[in-house]
Amino acid sequence: MTKVIPIVALDDAEEALYEIRKKIYPRAVSGWFARWRWVVVFVTQLVYYGTPWLVWNERQAVLFDLTARKFYIFGLVFWPQDFIYLTVLLLISAFSLFLFTAVAGRLWCGYACPQTVYTEIFLWLERKIEGDFIAQQKLDKGPVSARRLRLKALKHAVWIGLSLWTGFTLVGYFAPIRELVFSVAHWSIGPWETFWIFFYGFATYGNAGWLREQVCKYMCPYARFQGAMFDCDTLVVTYDEKRGEARGSRGKKTDYKSQGLGDCIDCHICVQVCPTGIDIRNGQQYECIGCTACIDACDQVMDKMSYPRGLIRYATENSVDQQFGWHEMLRRVFRPRVILYTVLLWAIIIATGITLWYRVPVKVDVIRDRGAMSREVEGGLIENVYRLHLLNTQEKPQRFVIHVSGIEGLQIVGLNQPQEIASAASKTVALDVRVDPEHVPKGNSRIEFQVVAVDAEGREAPGTFSIHEKATFFNR
What pLDDT, on the 0 to 100 scale, is given for residue 461? Predict the structure, then answer.
């Protein structure tokens, strides 16, 4: 018997494989968590947009000057040789994320993630221009009109303007922002600056204005693996099913418990305020970004019905199942993995702080002249040539003298002492080191260069730095 294989239309196959996106119109919500979310939005944007304009020692306070290979962070100057500090910064960020996630779930996603922050700003602008979520739906479903085109054009113009300013600010961290303003005003901006302003501006406009929840649901890797950092004692946005079920609408004065109903009146406001469009009553879902909008919305409904707050709340799985009190729940939050993350995080932060505090202001690299490793000069002395490359990591000039030791009679000739290196600059010093052949054996011998800071009169001042760098002296 011949088996008949049904032919599936291409459109039906695509609909089966890919979920068709429905635009979400989040309802505005107010409350304790919403106010804190806007505080975080205000603070993060104040820091982001304001930091490039700060001045420190007559230059931009925070500037990652890739061209000059200098990275200024207030009073600190970092060079490519300080790459280890970038590694430390990444470690601190990673352990902070692990710690916050283990304690309270997706705090980063719900409050400080740039995608969440800019989506919140774009939604606020959209409400100011087009109206609330009901007005927006009516506008989109209504006929094309002059009013609709005017509002849409105004909204996108504001979005694009904010996005370009965001891209401009980002470039201002890598190129002096005041010079960048002058270049833009005179249409003399370079190609790379132009590219990155428009690239980051386009990314902001596209992600916050168009993709929105799609970034969190499908593009962000954190949404996929964050569940591995949760356990039964992690604080997450939770619907109390035991208290809320069975759902059902009722009047305010109805004896709903005699009807077998729970506290949930099935108003769907928790769904209406969710920026990713999920129903928190269906349990934990990876789409939930922990923004807590549903908590504020549900608490307002509970207040109107004269029911206790907390039907949707921050809670742990164990606290809901076993009906823990708030204090007992918090005690279980501080468990071994949280303590371990906290200890490691603070150990890294303290070690980094100590390293920066005792950081030597000058870095020294000894480079042997490969062209003439060893040669005999007048008087029968053996000479080796070295180059000392010095980096001044402070924003003040440094004066220093150079000594050499390790072999009896070893001396530096032809070098004017002391040397001076400008603030936040580098300098290469050529050194001719000579010794009597009677005092040095054949082959390689260990020697040591010492770079000592001195004052304006050339004296070694107390508390100044001294750097020791080892090298080899070759006698053939």
Answer: 63
Question: Per-residue pLDDT averaged across 347-373, rounded?
Answer: 88
Strand ranges (E), 199-326: 236-239, 312-315
Answer yes or no: is pLDDT of 115 > 90. Answer: yes
The distance between the two most distant Cα atoms of the chain, rounded to a whole number of Å, is 113
- Across the range 155-177, mean pLDDT stands at 97
Mean per-residue pLDDT, 73-92: 90
Q: How far apart are CA 419 and CA 249, in angstroms?
A: 84
Handedness of CA 180, 183, 188, 194 (dihedral sign): positive
- Residue 417 CA, distance from chain mean position: 45
pLDDT-derived band at 1 (thresholds 50, 70, 90) equals very low
Q: Phi first, then psi: what are they for 403, rounded to 5°? A: -120, 160
In whole angstroms, give the CA distance from residue 94 to residue 348. 11
More confident residue, 325 or 405: 405
Using DSSP's 3-state secondary structure scheme, residue 102 falls into helix
Write down the residue that tokens 């799985």 correspond to: 317
Query: 375: which 2 tokens?
Result: 């040669």
Give the confidence band of 83 by pLDDT, cuts at 50, 70, 90: confident
- The percentage of the chain sitting over the pLDDT mark of 90, rounded to a whole number, equals 67
* Pair of tokens at residue 351: 């070690």
* pTM: predicted TM-score of the whole model, two decimal places: 0.86
Q: Is 129 helix (H, G, I), strand (E, B) or coil?
A: helix
Q: What ranges do the domains of the chain cover?
A: 17-53+105-227, 231-324, 362-475
**Is the domain 362-475 a CATH 3.30.390.30 member?**
no
CA distance 299 to 437: 89
Establish whether the linkage from the previous residue to 246 is cis, with ω within 30° of 0: yes
Helices (H), 105-176: 107, 114-130, 133-141, 146-171
Q: What pLDDT is stored for residue 462 in this prediction?
A: 61
C-alpha 179/C-alpha 200 separation (Å) is 19
Q: Rounded mean pLDDT of the chain? A: 90
CA 230/CA 438 separation, integer angstroms: 71
Residue 17: C-alpha distances to residues 13, 189, 218 (Å):
6, 46, 14
Q: Are 190 and 149 in contact (CB under 8 A)?
A: no
Nearest 5°: the CA angle 158, 164, 165 is 90
Contact 345, 99 (CB under 8 A): yes
The residue among 260, 258, 288, 257 whose CA lies nearest residue 274 is 288
